[in-house]
Specification:
The complex is a heterodimer of chains A (161) and B (68). Chain A has 161 residues and is an alpha+beta fold. Chain A is built from 5 helices and 5 strands; from the N terminus they run E-H-H-H-E-H-E-E-H-E. The chains are: A alpha+beta (161), B mainly alpha (68). At the A-B interface, strand 1, helix 1, helix 2, strand 2 and helix 5 of A face helix 1, strand 1 and helix 2 of B.
Chain lengths: 161, 68
């Protein structure tokens, strides 16, 4: 297979997400593709998909009727001392756990990712449960540095590679 | 049904599209030219300042898909 690189410009990244969002907007939940994949032709793309048909079908079934919500928590990690650091880490973990516990009734699956000061919770939520999820998440977000994004396509809940 | 009302800033978009999602082909190869990086940094800087502004061309779920 030719290895053609795709230039990751801002416009192209937006365009990619637009297509995914449009697919989600049909009412049927898609599995988003990662940016930057190239195929020699449409037929080659279809063939690549067909090869993974079993995995893809299972993946689509997993996210059917669902959307992804994202909670981005920012808790400053205190690096003034080892103890301060561990304390601030524990506080962040506590906040994350509070969110997950309070929202667990509305969340089918969840994933967590941390990077520096930012902790990201990804939640797979049933469309019907969305209004209640959002209401509860917003209530939890008062008093902490939390951003609640979504609903979006399930980028975080794809099939294993 | 209301959505979360938070603007999707560029860094959110980048991390999901480049780092997540299904990979069908063997490799995912992207390139970022210098000019793209400069533009990216400028945009990230700007979107950091403008987090209260909704970026109109990054759309959230349209009404008809919100489980009618």
């Amino acid at each position: 297979m030719d290895s053609l690189s795709v230039r990751a410009t801002v416009d192209r990244i937006r365009a990619h997400d637009h297509v995914v969002a449009a697919a989600l907007g049909t009412g049927s939940t898609p599995l988003p593709a990662r940016f930057g994949q190239t195929f020699a032709s449409d037929a080659a793309c279809v063939a690549a998909f067909s090869e993974k048909q079993v995995t893809m079908s299972a993946g689509l079934a997993r996210v059917a009727g669902m959307v992804e919500m994202t909670v981005i928590l920012r808790v400053a990690l205190d690096t003034s001392s080892g103890t301060a650091y561990l304390t601030s880490l524990a506080r962040r973990e506590h906040v994350a756990r509070e969110f997950n516990d309070a929202l667990s009734g509305y969340v089918r699956e969840s994933a967590m990712h941390t990077r520096e000061d930012v902790l990201t919770l990804s939640h797979l939520v049933e469309r019907e449960a969305l209004p209640t999820y959002i209401e509860r998440a917003k209530a939890l977000a008062t008093g902490v540095d939390a951003r609640i994004l979504g609903p979006g396509a399930p980028y975080s809940f794809g099939p294993p590679e | 049904m209301s959505d979360a009302d938070e603007p999707l800033v560029l860094s959110d978009l980048i991390s999901r599209v480049l780092d997540k999602g299904v990979v069908l082909s063997g490799d995912v190869v992207i390139s970022i030219a210098d000019i793209d990086l400069i533009k990216l940094e400028l945009r990230l800087l700007l979107s950091g300042i403008e987090t209260t502004k909704r970026e109109s061309d990054v759309s959230l779920l349209p009404d008809r898909a919100r489980g009618a």
